[in-house]
Amino acid sequence: MLHRFANPNRFSRLAAAILPWSAAGTVVLFSSGLYFVLFASPADYQQGDSVRIMYVHVPAAWIALACYSFIAAASGVSLIWKHPLADVAARSAAPLGAGFTVIVLATGSLWGKTTWGTWWVWDARLTSVLVLLFLYLGHIALTNAFDNPARGAKAAAILALVGFVNIPIIKFSVDWWNTLHQPASLVRLDGPAIDPSMLTPLLLMGVAFTFYFVTMLLVRMRADLAARKARALRLSAPG
Amino acid sequence: MIRLLLLIRRELKLAFRGGTDAAMAVVFFILAATLFPFGIGPDIEVLPRIGGGVIWVVALLASMLSLERMFSADYEDGSLEQFVLSPLPMGMVALAKMISHWLTTGVLLLAAAPVLAVFYNLPSTAFVPLIVSMLLGTPTLSLIGAIGAALTLGARRSGVLISLLVLPLYIPVLIFGSLVVDSALAGREYGSLLMVLGGFLLVALATAPWATAAALRQAID
Q1: ipTM summary value
Q2: Which residues contact B167 (CB under 8 A, 6 or more apart)?
Q3: Cα separations (Å) of A237 from A54, A233, A234, B188, B213?
Q4: pLDDT, greater one: A115 or A191
Q5: What is the pTM assigned to this prediction?
Q6: Which of B169, B196, B207, B220 to probe the A interface (max A CBs under 10 A)?
Q7: A154 and B218: CB-CB below 8 Å?
Q8: Which residues 66-105 of A have a C-beta within 8 angstroms of B?
Q9: How many Cα neighbours within 13 Å face the side chain of B130?
Q10: Among the four A65, A239, B122, B160, which has the fewest Cβ within 10 Å?
């Protein structure tokens, strides 16, 4: 089934068809999400209104981790089945993931200053997310370090798979070590430990961020394919 | 097994013929470690507190310096292509390179570490933990570093790129290695930390030759 969309033109057409819907969905979800976040959800009894940073920080973290997993999966597909678009997908997703990781670190730092009194602490969760940022940057650098783009894509694919060990470390860091960062309150064996009035805006923002990621990924992939086509045309032009 | 030893012997012969290349990493190790007392002042109280971490960080950087040359010479003169075409398993070739990198860099760092421990006024209780932690950690650095070296073959600015790729993967080894020295200084037990370092080494031994072989093969294609 995957190979049905191995044809870049067919994929570009499919992406063009999906794009208006995902873009519209992004706008709608962000608007309703932000309404809930800013107005229709309660302030925390301890943190006050600064708890609303959570609604940006946590979904961005979900997307940063999911994006790296997506890149690792695309890298696996590229190396095993040599799907033509897997490299394009990984290459397009990496800067998005890096951006979301920066958002996580920045919003987390702001939130930490208001609640913990410090901008940064070297505990397991923050350190492993910082390592995730470096892995993203390394992936981007490696992709662009070769004159032959295919070579860069394959090298970056191996790097993405080697670095995937960091993802479970990030997820379970707050359980395995005694960290300042709070432990898991959502994806736990006992179920979510968060009130529905806060869970709803959180999930809404999560879906909004996902739609945003999908929209931007499709835009970047189409741009990558168009750039490849332009380069091929330029190289084959006579004279 | 014989083939592995023959490959290692080849690498060591080439390293000795190369002259002072391996020694340069150790000289950098000592030089860079001596920069810190100049930078922060030779306060006899501060130096032992940062000594374990500084020695570990500088060992990391020194180990990283020689990564670029691990495969590049063979890549440029075509020997790597011969290795790929030969019936030798590429994992064995990669492992031979990693072991000889450790023998020519890591072991020398191990030998220089006591000198630096003296420079940083580390008490004698910290010497053995430092050496044992580096004994377990430096092979892991060679193993992981080889992945970075193989991935960047033929890249532009591969020296800096290797650092960017390999340093995030080095961080866990660094954390536990310097924790061993700190625990020894504080009088806490460090056996479990050494076991974690040993675990890293075993995981790296199991996975790094495989990943490096994959990277080498697609560098040749």
Answers
A1: 0.84
A2: A134, B60, B64
A3: 53, 6, 5, 71, 38
A4: A115
A5: 0.89
A6: B169
A7: yes
A8: 79
A9: 29
A10: A239
